[in-house]
Design brief:
87 residues; mainly alpha; elongated
Length: 87
């Protein structure tokens, strides 16, 4: 365990940020599952609505630094492609 005050603070701050990042990643996974479920059910309107919500959350996560911008772009692109491929 750290003895220096600044090191103790860094441990607390790191833990707080890690918890926040974990919460945001979990939220993103939930939105991805909603899009996948809509695609599986064949409901294009629901899939499109879920994709809009996912895109918004992914962009917020990118802004906060949880995900790299290229990762967000790649994931959104793949989801949009899957939704567009629905008949």
């Amino acid at each position: 365990m750290a003895n220096i005050k600044s090191a103790k603070k860094r441990i607390l701050v790191t833990r707080t940020k890690a918890d926040r990042n974990k919460m945001i990643r979990s939220k993103i996974k939930t939105y991805v599952k909603k899009v996948d479920a809509a695609i599986e059910s064949g409901d294009k309107a629901a899939a499109s609505a879920a994709l809009v919500a996912l895109t918004s959350e992914m962009d917020k996560a990118c802004t906060k630094g949880v995900y790299h911008k290229n990762t967000v772009s790649r994931k959104i692109s793949r989801m949009a492609k899957a939704v567009a491929a629905m008949d």
